[in-house]
Amino acid sequence: MSIDRKQAQNIASVLSEGLPYIQRFYGKTIVIKYGGAAMSKISLKEGFARDIALMKLVGMNPVIVHGGGPQIGSELKSAGIKTNFISGFRVTDRKTMKIVRRVLGQEINKEIVGLIKGFGAEAFAMTRYNKSIIRSSKLRLNEGKDLGLVGKVESIQNKEIKKKIDKGVIPVISPLGFNRKGECLNINADLVAGKIASSLKSEKLILLTDVEGIQEKKGKLISRINKKEAKSLLAQTVVEGGMKPKLESCMEAISTGVRSCHIIDGRLPHAVLLEVLTDEGIGTMITSG
């Protein structure tokens, strides 16, 4: 396939702009939470996998934590199981958990690994290690309502994750934790990603979502904020709904050694590469100061 002069110049410009970032992030760990629309459209799924493979092949160490809410909802509907949400959390009984484990731990996890491998990078489904990696407890809401098998992260044991990184393999992790009783718990993937980024002291934490990033009350994108400003946005209830755990996850990650956090629009093709390899970046960047 031939390209014209303008296309060639554009490609050269992108490669030239990306080089300093490839050099800066060579050997650095970047944790990416993959979810939303980027997981539902074939073109976006393949584009995401290609971009992650490229990051690995130029020397970065991506670690993937994935969600799967829409896929779980679809499977529950097919099974005739009613879904209830309390404060944004899916109430998870044992029947629901059976489907959650299958969708997250087997179907989605393995699909992501297969797509990344298809673009030439090594990836590994970490589901078998979740019991030792994500130590959790049941999440209790202040209003006292029972969420069932919904959890929160107590600690991350990153030994197995580091082993894969050291071997040049991309870890792909589902947000399933286990408590002391051995019960499997369904955990918000944004919060799992933040905890893993903190435990690895990663260079970046990138959270994919279905909006541009954090927005002001009037809907204008906030391109950059520090931890203090983020705390103020939460206090003023400017940030609510699904964006709230994302921002909270970023704030904790920044406080525990992660250099920068980014909330970006996963509907945009090559969103991760645009964030990592360009001067402008996209979405909202959260820093310590």
Automatic annotation (TrEMBL):
Domain Aspartate/glutamate/uridylate kinase as annotated: residue spans: 28-265
Record keyword Zinc present: no
Pfam families for the chain: AA_kinase
Keyword check for Transferase: yes
One GO BP annotation of this record: L-arginine biosynthetic process
Enzyme class label: transferase
Biological or metabolic pathway of the protein: Amino-acid biosynthesis; L-arginine biosynthesis; N(2)-acetyl-L-ornithine from L-glutamate: step 2/4
GO MF, any single term: ATP binding
EC number: 2.7.2.8
Keywords of this entry: Amino-acid biosynthesis, Arginine biosynthesis, ATP-binding, Kinase, Nucleotide-binding, Transferase
GO CC, alphabetical: cytoplasm
InterPro entries: AceGlu_kinase-like_sf, AcgluKinase_fam, ArgB, Asp/Glu/Uridylate_kinase, Glu/AcGlu_kinase, NAGK-C
HAMAP family: ArgB
Protein name stated in the entry: acetylglutamate kinase
Organism: marine metagenome
